[in-house]
Sequence to fold (247 residues):
Amino acid sequence: MLIIPINLGNKVPLYEQIYEYIKREIKTGKLPVATKLPSSRNLAQSLQISRSTVELAYQQLISEGYIESIPKSGYYVQGIMDLIQITERKKALGKEKVEKVERLKYDFSPFAVDLSEFPFPTWRKLSNQCMNDMNQSLFLLGENQGDLSLREAIVAYLHSSRGVKVEASQVIVGAGADYLLVLLSQILGNDQIIAMENPVYKRAYRIFQGVPYPVRPITVNTDGISIEELTRTDASIVYVTPSHQYP
Fold:
């Protein structure tokens, strides 16, 4: 059994602690190539945490090539890591070079926040208001699908901005798209075929492959995903990014 030291009081999310530990064990050779990792269920029981937390860590390792998921067999350390370790070792032995990095004027990272436009005073005011009005509830375990008032606000926004008719019970709030995709795959089951835009959001693609789902790439035109091409596939589910096509 894999013994992973996790700190429940740490600000680092549990799935990230698991991910970092396994990645470090692989890169240092303590988990050799072809080593079978414990199932997500067994590891979750051992650590006394949610199974979805372990699965999210595993999906992150799969997306970065550290491990692979073999259907009806389990999770195994990837052989490709041998090449990565050799490359890193050669770099370490070589002469260190200090290169001048040009500072970019604009940050187009999809994970960044424009701090120059962030309303810090408003955020601080609302945070203080929440702490004063309902400070006790902030330290309690919330609803599994996310705070009801937040989900109701999302429903109202979707109706007014997109014309989407949805109920609060159909909305799930989670810590990022990757985490929610893992949860979604658990809800949908394994007998699905996914159609995705091409080019595609790479992390979502790797998560679907790790389930594993067969993926059907669909061409994107000026109007978005090609409906004509989509209808010719055997896909049962379509994953799209209609607001901001990625990449």
Observations:
- The radius of gyration is 21 Å.
- Confidence is low (pLDDT under 50) at residues 81-90.
- DSSP finds nine helices and seven strands in the chain.
